[in-house]
Amino acid sequence: MKKTDILIAGVGGQGTILTGRIIAALAIAEGLDVKTAETHGMAQRGGSVITHVRLGEKVYSPLIPPGDGDILLSFEKLEALRWLPFLSKKGTVIVNTQELEPLPVLTGSMEYPEGILEEIEGKVSRLIAVDALSVDPVTENPRMVNTFLLGILAKNMPYEMEKWLKVMEEEIKAKLVDANKKAFMAGWNLQ
Fold this sequence. Notes:
With 191 residues, the chain is an alpha/beta fold. Helix content is 34%, strand content 24%.
């Protein structure tokens, strides 16, 4: 399998690290080499969080160089725009259209930018933009945005659904597995 570089972007508390762990665990189960790295920018206060996941036959570095990423999975659209320079022009962006206002917007020193999705679309080969909060079961539990979007990502990768679900059982707390599986399946079946 050729190397695949996936960036997972969001803000603190959205599950970027868990999502990266699930992807990495699946790749390891498939016998692939995996390297991951995480960056937390004031994550506990809603700051930017990015997880790099690189998988393939042999991976040498955990960090995805700018312009090299294959997939950007973003739980918020401004975060997608922020990390877009790490994606290849041939890359795919999977993004939740939700707007979480960063601190400068909340304090009134800046405005939330307009035209983000149009800007992203003009810079990548494929954009999948979904209002995750309008899709059941995410409407019932907004904390499931990450596994819903993971389901969309998984459907676009060469691994069977059952393998993803098995890894989720191993990586997610037992009491949360069923809800996360429902969200994952909603994403998997979206397309």
